[in-house]
């Protein structure tokens, strides 16, 4: 009897997770739709929703009053008061956000903080203390996630190397937990960005995705095949920026032994525009408005080198979509059809027939949402744990 009870409870917890994950990833929907999408019966769904609502994880609201056929079914939505703290430390700034179930950034802060780990941890703790007594007062904070531009060991979340931050063998999770009281999950920024775009953004309708993120620290990437994130043996997969670039025109080369992120580089774009520093929106405007040959030439040069790297990836992995984030999205948006044509010119014809190259849809939220998703995972797996 005990084993049977345990089994029944395990199934119930699994079903609770399935319902919560559904409304978290797919948005508010009626009980009737949840019943159809999960394959569970109506009374089971009613019980699961009531349990999740009682735990404060979902909220029910009145159905659409214009629906007049049959008995209306209540709408189930993820709770805005359940949040995960997400951080993205970069060389130019620290970004911190509180992300709700449902993938919305409820509040965010961006500060110029040095790359020193102690400074970063102190800033996160200070920001979170302010939110706990202010904008997040009364919220349930389930944990935190950090999107780090570097190599993160999957087994324990240790940052093996974040070269632009100067971090080596850093237990960032332990430091953050000691300062905030929250458990933190640490991941590579681009891998988490890929996860966010697959669940909530530009790759929602694709199962085979290459994601490249261009930030102040260089170029990282994420890979999703058949709907599964690919991290490699120890979690280090996706370091596209460290690949050797294919440069057809020798006049395009700016380094003698450089890797892709040395040639396709945010700092070089800033230098061409004369901006000492800028966020992505400001940089995008500056590049879009530029007519000087030095600026347009640098854009074209970087696009040519980027397209060769993308063509190699297409030949090797045959994605249905490539999603570009950060300054790489800016390069793509300069001429979307032109970039796709450059890739097709250098790749095999068959894997590019139906290929799409999209800009990341989540904009500045992509890494925060990805980091929060990692923090939400234990809750989604077992909402009553």
Describe the structure.
- It is a single chain.
- 44% of the residues lie in helices and 22% in strands.
- It is of the alpha/beta class and 385 residues long.
- The protein is globular, with a radius of gyration of 22 Å.
- The two termini are 22 Å apart.
Walk me through the topology:
Elements: H1 2-26, E1 29-30, H2 31-38, H3 42-54, E2 58-61, E3 75-78, E4 82-89, E5 94-100, E6 105-111, H4 117-132, E7 140-148, E8 151-152, E9 159-162, E10 167-170, H5 172-180, E11 184-188, H6 189-200, E12 209-215, E13 218-225, E14 228-229, H7 260-263, H8 266-273, H9 280-289, H10 293-317, E15 321-326, H11 327-334, H12 336-346, H13 349-352, E16 356-359, H14 366-381
Parallel strand pairs: 4-7, 7-11, 12-15, 15-16
Antiparallel strand pairs: 1-3, 2-3, 4-5, 5-6, 8-9, 9-10, 12-13, 13-14
- Rg calculated over all Cα atoms: 22 Å
- Spell out the helices and strands N to C: HEHHEEEEEHEEEEHEHEEEHHHHEHHHEH
Largest sheet descriptor: 5 strands, mixed
Structural class per helix/strand content? Answer: alpha/beta
Helix amount? 40-55%
Distance between the termini: 22 Å
- Strands of the biggest beta sheet: in what spatial order? 6-5-4-7-11
Describe the global form.
globular
* Overall residue-averaged pLDDT value: 95
Low-confidence stretches: none
Q: Total helix count?
A: 14
Task: Report the count of strand segments.
Answer: 16
β-sheet strand percentage: 15-25%
Relevant terms:
385 residues, alpha/beta, 5-stranded mixed beta sheet, 14 helices, globular
